[in-house]
Structures are given as structure tokens and as C-alpha cells.
TrEMBL record:
<dbReference type="Pfam" id="PF12059">
    <property type="entry name" value="DUF3540"/>
</dbReference>
<dbReference type="InterPro" id="IPR021927">
    <property type="entry name" value="DUF3540"/>
</dbReference>
<protein>
    <recommendedName>
        <fullName>DUF3540 domain-containing protein</fullName>
    </recommendedName>
</protein>
């Protein structure tokens, strides 16, 4: 038995895997002659690039924290401090999506601006509350099953208005006045004018024409 055991090949042990190590450093961000980002840390000037997790875009003069994996591989991980007056820009290359499953997302600022070539908003319920609102556009289309406007005053200025509806009902408590150079009212079947006092005034001519005309 001892001889058989001594003839078995010895089992080789695999060397333990080693993790890739990195070195942290802090420096001031600048740019070189070709516009590449350079971090000055101590006596070193290291070319660096922003890590994907660093959403705040670094600017020249920022104090940044970097991770050095290799002599030629330095990543800007975070912006520690920046000079007053430098704009804070949050961005990332490519597509970006902010998801808050089961929660709420709120934006709070003195002014919020949105600039886009195309803006899509999809919601089951939308509500906009504002003391003053301005909507400016070259072409505006509103499509809805029901449209309701409630206000104390409505003022519109149009070069041309064209309206079509299956049924049109208008009620005015006060004065309903139309002033135009030429007014035409046409009914396919019946036109009725009724009032407690009805006045028809033609400065030069009043003409009535029909197969039968009844007064009284």
C-alpha cells in the first residue's frame, strides 16, 4: 500500500487569485495643450478621465478624488470642491433614464428649464398650477374627448377662425354683440328671431323676400 501511494502524482495547488489594486489620490483638475483633462497631484501630472459614476461634470480648477489603477489609467471618481461661480452640470454620455419604482420624484428650484428637440410626456393624470402661464408655439393642436375652460375673462386674437360642430349652444347673461363689416346668417330649415323687443334697422334699405310673408 505504501508503494502505491508513493506513485500517485502530487496535486498542484492553483495560485490564489489576486484582486486588481488601485491607488487613491487627490488633485486639482486642469487641461493640457490638446485639451485633455490632467490632474495635478503633488509633483505628478496625470491624464485622467471621468468615471461613469461621477455624474457631475468636472471643470478646470476643481478639487477631485481619483483612482489610479495603472500609470496610464486614472479615473476621476468624485468632485470634492469647486470654485464659486462655476456651473454645476450633471450629465452622462449616451442615453440616461431616472427610475423611482414605487416612489416619487420631485424637482425643486427657483427656475427649471427644459430644452429638447422633442418632448414626450405620458401620464394617466396631469395637473399644472401656476399664477401666470404663457404658451408660445408656431403650431398648436389639442385633441381630447372633453374640453372645459373656466375663467373670468377670455380674450383671443386671430386672423381667421373656422369652427365646425354637430351641435352648438351658447348662453349669455349679459350683452351678446357682433360687430363686422359683413354678417351672413344661413339656416337650411328654420331661422328664428325672438325677443321682447325686436328692432330691424336698415339705413338705406330693408328687404324681405319669400313665397309667403306674414306680419302680425
Amino acid at each position: 500500500m505504501n508503494n502505491e501511494t508513493s506513485k500517485r502524482p502530487a496535486t498542484r495547488r492553483r495560485p490564489a487569485a489576486k484582486a486588481i489594486t488601485g491607488e487613491w489620490c487627490v488633485g486639482i483638475l486642469g487641461t493640457d495643450a490638446v485639451g485633455a483633462q490632467v490632474v495635478a497631484s503633488g509633483g505628478l501630472r496625470l491624464r485622467a478621465q471621468r468615471a461613469a459614476s461621477c455624474l457631475l461634470e468636472p471643470a478646470a480648477g476643481d478639487s477631485v478624488a481619483c483612482l489610479r489603477i495603472a500609470p496610464d489609467e486614472v479615473w476621476i471618481m468624485a468632485v470634492l470642491q469647486r470654485e464659486e461661480g462655476t456651473a454645476n452640470i450633471v450629465g452622462c454620455p449616451g442615453q440616461m433614464r431616472i427610475a423611482v419604482p414605487g416612489g416619487a420624484l420631485e424637482l425643486e428650484a427657483a427656475r427649471v428649464g427644459v430644452r429638447s428637440d422633442e418632448l414626450d410626456i405620458a401620464a394617466q393624470k396631469a395637473r399644472v398650477a401656476s399664477d401666470t402661464a404663457d404658451l408660445v408655439g408656431r403650431q398648436l393642436s389639442v385633441v381630447g374627448t372633453s374640453l372645459k375652460l373656466v375663467g373670468s375673462m377670455l380674450s383671443s386674437v386671430m386672423d381667421r377662425v373656422q369652427h365646425f360642430s354637430s351641435s352648438y349652444l351658447r348662453t349669455t347673461d349679459g350683452i351678446d354683440r357682433v360687430a363686422a363689416t359683413h354678417v351672413e346668417v344661413e339656416a337650411m330649415q328654420l331661422m328664428r328671431l325672438e325677443g321682447e323687443h325686436t328692432l330691424v334697422n336698415g339705413r338705406e334699405l330693408v328687404k324681405a323676400r319669400g313665397a309667403q310673408i306674414h306680419f302680425g
